[in-house]
Amino acid sequence: MPETVVASDQWGQIIDYDEWNSLELRWLPSTANAVDPDVKTTMAVFAHEAVNRRPKTLIVDTTEFRHVWGDGMMQWRDTNIIPLYNQAGVSKFAFIANRHYPGPTFEAGATPAPEGPANFPTGWFKTREAAYQWLAT
Description:
Layout: E1 4-8, E2 12-17, E3 22-27, H1 36-53, E4 57-61, H2 73-80, H3 82-88, E5 92-96, E6 122-125, H4 128-135
Parallel strand pairs: 3-4, 4-5, 5-6
Antiparallel strand pairs: 1-2, 2-3
């Protein structure tokens, strides 16, 4: 599938899949050196790209994500990022989990469901292929 990098910084790349109407944030290994404000900035750029492009689906590839979130990051995400995804009209959100992800994945039987104030289901996946397959249904 053709991909176009529409934004990037030292922490991640934002990729548009025009033919598939999907937008991806691919975190980079350099996130090991990031602090919470760095990660927040990248997440905000991704959310604003979603509002501007209005993709049907979103993907976040965390396979190379190395940052450890500080206290309050999930609350910040719920307050500042998820409403932008809702505004963009996102219908599904897929995370591709890194090897340290402690939760259950779709492949292990987890059912995608809305997280926090999201109007759309979010699924966690071990593989990109499984995420793509779910997003396409």
